[in-house]
Amino acid sequence: MKASPLARKIAAQAGVDLRLLQGSGPGGRIIRRDVETAAATPGAAAAAVAIPATRQPGVDEYEDMALTPMRAAIARRMPLAKAPVPHFYVTSEVAMDRAWQLREELNALEGQPRISVNDLVVRAVALALMQHPGVNASFQGDAVRVYHRAHVGIAVALDDGLITPVLRDAQAKSLAEIAVESRDLAERARARKLRVNELSGATFSISNLGMFDVTEFSAIINPPEGAILAVGAVRRVPVVTDAGVDVGRRLLATLSCDHRVMDGAMGARFLQDVKRLLEEPLRLLV
């Protein structure tokens, strides 16, 4: 199978099976245009159906499921992401009482887009990245590239893997715009209708497993990005106050950092600002 390196890279990001393509390059070589056309065609980039081995219930101890193109791409990329990148992790607990109340009030407004917890996190991250450009950066071998715009990758779980569409210029978008665009990206990701340019170019990513009732986890950085934020569920927990013990809403967020790009203090200061923005949520509206 002949394919250019760029075509292979785009195919891996978009989940396109190169074996299903007919190349239009010299000698039948698969080139970038072939992959982009396949990714833009509904159904063309859909994952192959996993075919189980012949199985006799109650007799066989296991069955082998063929890897879908997306799962195969993830299997190739994850060792490249985890092994060479020196990860370190910073976790913070965020009081979400005021943010939760603000979200309920905004969602009660007629004719306005519904705001999710993840939309609040995206807005807070985008604003904090502008204050901490060292976190909005990537390792380039002999230099650290610092980005001046926040292109936020938003991880979306599919049946056969994970895909991360990119919300571009998140720092310039209002909370309502983030809500509308994030929902559109997620819906088209699940329908396999994302365009190729919507799958690359992120400068920072967010992975939220709160909807699965996950309290806390650490995410793997998606190279060449320098960091990713893992977000757990908003929980109602006992909280000690000056007046005694009360019930509050808390969220645990863990920042995974590339130690070649930043140090612990830099990651901690960034996470502190994300926490402050979520705990003083009116800042997200200005």
Helix residue percentage: 25-40%
- What sort of overall outline do the alpha carbons produce when their principal axes are compared? globular
Structural class: alpha+beta
Which regions are unreliable across 5 or more consecutive residues at pLDDT < 50? 44-54
Topology:
Blueprint: H1 5-14, H2 32-40, H3 69-82, E1 87-95, H4 97-107, H5 117-131, E2 137-139, E3 144-146, E4 152-154, E5 156-158, E6 161-163, E7 166-167, H6 175-190, E8 204-208, E9 227-231, E10 235-241, E11 244-258, H7 264-279
Parallel strand pairs: 4-8, 8-9
Antiparallel strand pairs: 1-11, 2-3, 4-7, 5-6, 9-11, 10-11
Helix pairs in contact: 1-2, 5-6, 5-7
Describe this structure as you would to a colleague.
The chain is α+β, with helices and mostly antiparallel strands and 286 residues long. It is 32% helix and 20% strand. It has 2 domains: 5-76, no CATH class; 84-285, Chloramphenicol Acetyltransferase (2-Layer Sandwich), CATH 3.30.559.10. It has 7 helices and 11 strands. Strands 1, 4, 7, 8, 9, 10 and 11 form a 7-stranded mixed beta sheet that branches. Strands 2-3 form a two-stranded antiparallel sheet. It has a two-stranded antiparallel sheet with strand order 5-6. Helix 5 crosses helix 6 (175-190). The radius of gyration is 21 Å and the shape is globular. The termini are far apart.
